[in-house]
Amino acid sequence: MRVAIGSIAPNIHVSKWVQGLPTNIDINKGKVVLVEVFQVNCPGCFIYAFPSAIELYKKYDRNDLIVLGLATAFEDFDKNTLENLELLLTSGEVIGETFNTLNQYGHLINSNKIPYKIPFPVGMDIVRKNDRILTENDILDFISSNIENYNTYQESDRKIIFERVKHYLKNKVYTAQTFDEYQLQGTPSAILVDREGILRNVSFGVNYHLKDLIQQLINA
User: Fold this and answer.
1) Does 188 sit behind a cis peptide bond, omega within 30 degrees of 0 on the bond before it?
2) In this predicted model, what pLDDT tens digit does every residue of 165-206 receive, in sequence order?
3) Which of 64, 97, 108, 146 is the most buried (most CB within 10 A)?
4) DSSP codes joined into one string, 45-66
């Protein structure tokens, strides 16, 4: 089921902390926590999300705001890998569509590197191959988390939705644990947690209100 706004925020699931010491949401209680979820093969993450997250990291004291990066994979599993994340963080090199788009718009330096360093801890989401048997409850849980008012649809429409979700889940080869637990819609996504460890916001894409929300939580 979807993690509910206003409930305790679950820890992010990390297979390896590639940069920075191991940390998580629960051990940063007393501070506002921003988790920037991205994919290595995601141009928008590097054009919009990272510059904004770095700006916030530099603006606030570590006693007020903790910024964490979490690389995940819900598509392009051959590119959104731990190895390519390590390449990014050790050398600044980007790959795939990230390279193509940033190169096209002149956002790279030295041919293939981003023009900034990511300064905060970054880990890799736990990505596992799906080997469990898909159940009807799995399908209904996914529907309830992603389709509002599903039960108000006509029966014929509910059957169509059910079959489409079933097909999607059957063909989903890998599962990224944090991405799925928070029912994220894509990348970049931001997870925002208050000083008490309560989930206050989950957003997909460019969130123009994120800075104001963070300031409000810091001032609270």
Assistant:
1) yes
2) 888 778 777 899 999 999 999 999 999 999 999 999 999 999
3) 108
4) IIIIIHHHHHHHHHHS-TTTEE
